[in-house]
């Protein structure tokens, strides 16, 4: 079995998590890790900065975990995802995980949470479809 060189470029993670990524990749020949601090609503800068670590000529995974629920519709979350996907080669992957509008109790809990934070969470209604891509 061959080992594929890996790279991780993370945004908005704790320094200890970046150290853990680096330790894991230290065992992989060619493994690299980096941390960038860029607003997720600026996908062009994210891609530019990530290109210093990631080889975008190779299949790449974009993982948006717990991010899109923090972006209001007025900031075009679908366009943010689409911009990132347009830059990826064939056989790349996208993983999205966020809250969905599934029950009145959950909606009430989120409303209470949102009253106490500067950046509210938005649950996506199940009827909304994710952006499509040919990546």
Description:
Helix 3 links the parallel strand 3 (61-65) and strand 4. Strands 1-2 form a two-stranded parallel ribbon. The longest helix has 11 residues, at 15-25. Helix content is 30%, strand content 18%. It is built from four helices and six strands. The chain has a domain at 38-125. It is an alpha/beta fold and 135 residues long.
Total strand segments: 6
Radius of gyration, whole Å: 17 Å
Helix percentage range:
25-40%
* End-to-end C-alpha gap: 27 Å
- What kind of sheet is the major sheet? 2 strands, parallel
Multimeric status of the protein: single chain
Outline of this structure?
The protein has helices at 15-25, 43-50, 77-86, 104-114, and strands at 7-11, 32-36, 61-65, 93-97, 100-101, 124-125. It has 135 residues and is an alpha/beta fold.
């Amino acid at each position: 079995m061959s080992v594929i060189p890996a790279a991780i470029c993370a945004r908005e993670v704790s320094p200890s998590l970046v150290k853990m990524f680096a330790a894991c990749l230290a065992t992989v020949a060619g493994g690299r890790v980096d941390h960038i601090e860029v607003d997720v609503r600026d996908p062009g800068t994210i891609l530019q900065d990530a290109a210093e670590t990631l080889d975008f000529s190779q299949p790449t995974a974009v993982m948006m975990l717990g991010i899109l629920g923090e972006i209001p519709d007025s900031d075009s979350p679908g366009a943010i995802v689409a911009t990132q996907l347009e830059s990826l080669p064939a056989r790349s992957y996208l993983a999205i995980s966020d809250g969905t509008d599934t029950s009145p109790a959950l909606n009430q809990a989120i409303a209470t949470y949102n009253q106490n934070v500067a950046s509210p969470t938005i649950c996506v209604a199940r009827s909304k479809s994710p952006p499509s891509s040919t990546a």
